[in-house]
Amino acid sequence: MNDRCSDQGEQKVRRIDRRAFLRLVAAGGGALALQACGGGAPPAAAPTTAPAAPTVAPAAPTAAPAAPTAAPAAPTAAPVASNARGGKVTWAMLGDPVSLEPYGINITGQYNYEAREPMYDSLLVWDRDLKVQPSLAESFETPDDTTYIFNLRSGVKFHNGRELTAEDVKFSLDTIINPPDGRNPGAAFFANFDTIEVVDPLTIRINLKKIDPTIPGLFAWSRYTNIFPTDMPSQINPVTQAIGTGPFRLVSYTPNAEIVYERFSDHWNPEQPNIDQLIYRVIPEEDARIAALRSGDIDGTDVTPLGARRLQNDSDITILKGLYSQPKVLQFTLKGGKPWDIKEVRQAISLTIDRQELIDKVMEGEAELTGPVVPGYGDWPLSQDELRAAYQVDVEKARQLMAQAGYADGFKVTAMTFANYSNDNAIIVQEQLRQLNIDMQIEQIEFGTFAQRVTNGEFEWCFTARGMRADVSGYLNDFRRLGIAEKNWFPAWENAELNEAYDAAMATFDQAKRRELMQKVQRIVINEAPHIYLYQDYRFSAVRKRVQNYYVAFTTFRPALREIFVTA
Hints:
Strand content: 15-25%
Radius of gyration: 23 Å
CATH topology of the domain at 328-538: Dipeptide-binding Protein, domain 3
Structural class: alpha+beta
Oligomer: single chain
């Protein structure tokens, strides 16, 4: 957040209390529109907002996306009285988290975060419209472009009964930036951090190396900013145990089976949670999840579009639909010495992939084309018309490019996949690429191993997905070769024009200028094809009607479980 006086050209310190914070964020702060909802009426799209950094002065517009186009509204669950409390909800996860660590490698990505989301808080939080709101920090201030001062809530308790202090925040961030295992997939998001200082027991100062419009969004996103106590490493094994400040406290974790949480009665937000017990049950197979949902053994789960159709006439179940941030991708490692290190080969592959066939066959037509920035992320993404033009199938031109690169006879390659959409996409692309004489072998492996190998760059190709990001730059920083990307993914590839545009976009708060530059970066990525983007599907969640106030979050995670009610 940056506060400038445009009339006098001088910078001022502005302290934002909770009431002013909420007013400012609602009027012009960081938000994307929610793409579908569960309880009550669908939330309205936010005016000109982004998850990146709420503005507090017209003189310093941030990287805020304009209001996105909302997806068709899904059926809503019935409203429920605000005093409804108690009960148990069982939700089916598609995979095991493997580790509950709030830092470090987080090798299972989606499932790791789903598992720890109920237990940990960050300094800020997105609401269901993705407006940035206070969380562990009740306010923050910016004396200049490179300083953020967060003022913590008083009396916040960890699950072990100890009160939160600024020392815990510093310890958490230091540990996240330099985790014990030495591997930090989120390193790029902290590249501009210089020092973290404890001002007093309830005040923390973050000094940056240079201007960075992503900081509020980084803390609202919370994937890499969970806060935990300084004494956690000496008290528990964070792989299987947890001490956070979240609305649920961990009771037990049985790997590959279930995670049991109970309501944390001392949570700082008296409105969360509403249920007494939350259980995550690991059920990878959709048929088994659907059977468990129909029998009442579970209360909710994600389903494929086909699964949603199977359940749509069930009177006890509500189907919710929404865009979310998880673009599907064919990812290469570009390390030198392989055919796909040549740009023309990658371009030929992209020209041969029929994305509409993938959408129709894998997602039952329930998806949109996507570039590096997903549709629904304000006005930052490239338009569907532009993407359709860029992704026109042209096998003859692709063959010419292969011949130009010296690979008219094709080559053999191994593509790594895991279950569900990843393997389905690979099977279709495998057949499409036979037209270029490319023999793509599919290696389907367990998700935890898949995620570990992706992080380490131990693959040739893989069919994967990207998640939600705190700022538009988060969708693009891999191609700037930040974090693990330079060493593990792209040691033999770099684009100077992309680097220049990306760096310029990160050096300004001017929203229009950032958008122009970041769209230029996206076009370079599509042309260079270090990754090949396939589509962004809609998410479907199926919930029993006893569960109310659930919604599909654009963030890809499940903040709604903090807010749900049950009626029986």
